[in-house]
Design a protein that fits this description.
alpha+beta, Beta-lactamase, seven-stranded mixed sheet, five-stranded antiparallel sheet, elongated
Length: 696
């Protein structure tokens, strides 16, 4: 039997249950319908987070890293935001940043300066006022750099829970004041007894403490976010320092400021870094999401795209061969003290550049300290009159056209010959020959013989052969666009429309035209390659980070037709072999390998008098080995070798020792089979398991 008291209790419970369900329904409707995404609109922030892509690496032919990106952080402080919390922030951050508290604290402390205020009057004059304007001169202070990402993660985790002393003090006072607040019944009793004034004062005190606590909490949150900010930085690192600096180039920072948390983008400024900047860049990722009170709402994620790091660029350069060349050039700088010196190693059959170096040079890790002329890749950008090395082309053209063979006789006029018009042609002192074979005239670098042979053909035919050998045009090895050739110079002939007998004759022995070291090296490589000119190669492939080949570059012939016939190239090889055995390049002879080459010495033009200087020269030696089946073509060019001695400025004496040192070590490293039989034991066979070891 249900009594009235029981019925009343049942209705009371039902009323409480109904009210609770009603309130819950209202709250659900509010959250799901009115604010379905934003439980707290002020705390939630929709975010687009950009995931930066790491710049790709540059590898040598054997996979050694020669350029890579390193990501680290720099910490910037805003003392205006940190305010009176400098000591607490310094005590927490100093161990993570590798600094002492005494060292870090001054960087976090606000520096206030005052200045007078000048106010303009209506008449345009200025009057002095007593107003003072407070300014802050250290709003963004670099406090630490080169901080590893792991330390930054530790800093972020710890700073979230860091409570500043002032906030702890106010919170403690607020909690104590709350404890002293009487219960509701006690407050009613006091109010009825006339003690309401004390309760009001206490309530206001508690309210002020709560407001101060909330303000300090907001300030503390601001300090955590903007007081000491880690800024990501991507730095390009070149592990081998100056090695291949002119090939690799360097990077610079983009002028566009990225979103917060994204490092400034690196842009290629020179060399391979510039040539393959698009491939090295990579593609940034993107995450669209929402965060509420510091936590991500994962179900509300939008696009979630992972970053794709830049592709790797694999070069044809071999780091060990590059180091051999770099060391040889350093020794040459000490020995002959040139204004500049360049060396190029090429594989004739493919056109692959195995090494390329210049002096002066620079360290791409410290490029901001390098003078502009030290950054120039002289092998591509600085043309000069090639001198006697250009006789290779004159003889190649004459023999290929059937105008002579190297066994035909030629009268060298004992070193002085007067052509039909213009100035006489003279040989270098000591090169006065009579009637000799073209082979001997070539070996002893007779200008007279070269001029006589060259003048047997028309200037149009001669220039045609120059183009067939790659002169007067860019090779495209650093080509990036129609308007950017990577600084490569095409060489040329000053005022080609004014060609006459004198100018034609001078060109036959390397004067009156300009060529880059690369053009001369590739022309010699074409002779070594049986007359086929290859395009120079610096890059073998573009690869993904896992090694997957994206683009493979194959050797390419410069033209469908060879520059000269194979039979012509065979005669040129024989003549160039005579240069080393009996001519001006004897110093370059090797014990185990036949060497074919050509010396060159050119008077430089005085920029003041515009006449040939008797004090300044460009010395060159270009050659290949083994002579019959060449595997290496090496060019060495010295600009103004200044150490004087008996003929020290000649191509053979200035550049021959450098060529010989490089050729010996490179042949040993590549394990080339000897082409000269000797009675001494073959030491190369003892080192086949260690190809990088130098064999003397």
């Amino acid at each position: 039997m249900i009594t009235p008291g029981t019925r009343g209790r049942i209705w009371f419970v039902a009323w409480i249950f109904g009210v609770s369900l009603t309130l819950l329904g209202v709250q659900l409707a509010f959250v799901q319908c009115l604010r379905p995404v934003y439980p707290d609109a002020q705390d939630d922030t929709g975010q687009k987070i950009i995931r930066p892509a790491r710049r790709g690496e540059v590898l040598d032919a054997r996979g050694n890293v020669v350029a890579q990106s390193r990501q680290f952080y720099e910490f910037y402080a805003d003392p205006v935001v940190i305010g009176t919390n400098a000591a607490a922030v310094a005590a927490y951050a100093a161990p993570l940043l590798g600094k002492g508290v005494e060292e870090l604290l001054p960087l976090l402390t606000l520096r206030v300066e005052f200045r007078t205020n000048w106010v303009a009057t209506n008449v345009g004059a200025y009057r002095y006022t007593n107003a003072w304007v407070r300014t802050y001169t250290n709003r963004s202070v670099l406090v630490a750099s080169n901080i590893e990402p792991a330390l930054v993660a530790r800093y972020r985790d710890g700073i979230t829970n860091l409570l500043f002393p002032r906030y702890l003090e106010v919170r403690q006072r607020y909690q104590e004041a709350r404890k002293q607040t009487p219960a509701a019944a006690e407050r009613v009793k006091r109010m009825l007894s006339g003690q309401g004034g004390d309760l009001k004062a206490h309530s206001k005190s508690v309210s002020r403490l709560r407001q101060e606590r909330d303000a300090l909490w907001a300030l503390q949150r601001e300090v955590r976010i903007n007081g000491l900010v880690p800024v990501p930085v991507e730095q390009r690192v070149y592990p081998q320092g100056i090695a291949a600096a002119h090939i690799l180039g360097y990077t610079t920072n983009d002028v566009v400021r990225p979103p917060r948390g994204v490092p400034i983008r690196l842009l290629g400024a020179m060399g391979i870094e510039n040539r393959f900047d698009t491939e090295l860049q990579g593609v940034p990722g993107l995450l669209e999401t929402h965060r509420v009170k510091g936590r991500e709402l994962v179900p509300l994620r939008g696009r979630d795209l992972a970053a794709r790091d830049g592709f790797n660029v694999r070069l044809t350069i071999d780091s060990h061969l590059q180091s051999i060349v770099e060391q040889a050039l350093d020794e040459a700088v000490q020995a002959i003290e040139p204004k500049a010196i360049t060396c190029i190693l090429v594989r004739p059959q493919t056109g692959e550049i195995l090494a390329m170096a210049n002096r002066p040079t620079f360290d791409p890790n410290l490029v901001r300290f390098a003078p502009v002329d030290h950054r120039m890749n002289r092998a591509l950008t600085v043309p000069s009159e090639p001198g006697s090395t250009f006789k290779m082309l004159t003889y190649a053209a004459g023999i290929d056209m059937g105008l002579a063979t190297i066994d035909d006789p030629v009268d060298c006029e004992h070193g002085r010959w007067q052509p039909a018009s213009g100035r006489p042609v003279r040989d270098m002192e000591g090169h006065g020959l009579g009637v000799v074979k073209f082979e001997e005239a070539f070996a002893k670098s007779s200008n007279v013989a070269a001029a006589k042979l060259g003048l047997r053909m028309s200037s149009a035919d001669f220039i045609g052969y120059m183009k067939r050998f790659g002169f007067l045009q860019r090779s495209g090895v650093m080509f990036t666009s129609r308007t950017n050739w990577g600084g490569e110079h095409p060489g040329g002939i000053p005022d080609p429309n004014r060609m006459n007998v004198e100018r034609h004759g001078r060109m036959c022995y390397g004067y009156g035209l300009y060529a880059t070291p690369l053009q001369t090296a590739m022309a010699a490589a074409a002779i070594a390659n049986n007359g086929v000119l290859m395009k120079p190669m610096l890059v073998k492939s573009i690869e993904a980070a896992d090694g997957t080949v994206i683009t493979r570059y194959s050797p390419v012939r410069a033209s469908a037709e060879p520059a000269i016939k194979a039979s012509t190239a065979a005669q040129l090889k024989r003549a160039m072999r005579a240069v080393v055995t009996d001519g001006t390049g004897k110093i370059t002879a090797l014990e185990e390998y036949d060497v074919a080459g050509k010396t060159g010495t050119a008077h430089k033009v005085d920029p003041v008098t515009h006449r040939q200087s008797n004090e300044k020269y460009t010395a060159t030696f270009v050659g290949f080995l083994p002579a019959e089946k060449p595997e290496l073509c090496i060019l060495v060019l010295a600009d103004e070798p200044s150490k004087r001695g008996a003929g020290s400025h000649f191509g053979g004496k200035a550049c021959g020792p450098v060529f010989k040192s490089i050729a010996n070590q490179a042949a040993s490293y590549l394990a080339l089979p000897p082409s000269i039989r000797t009675n001494t034991p073959n030491t190369l066979a003892l080192t086949t398991n260690h190809p990088a070891r130098r064999v003397n």
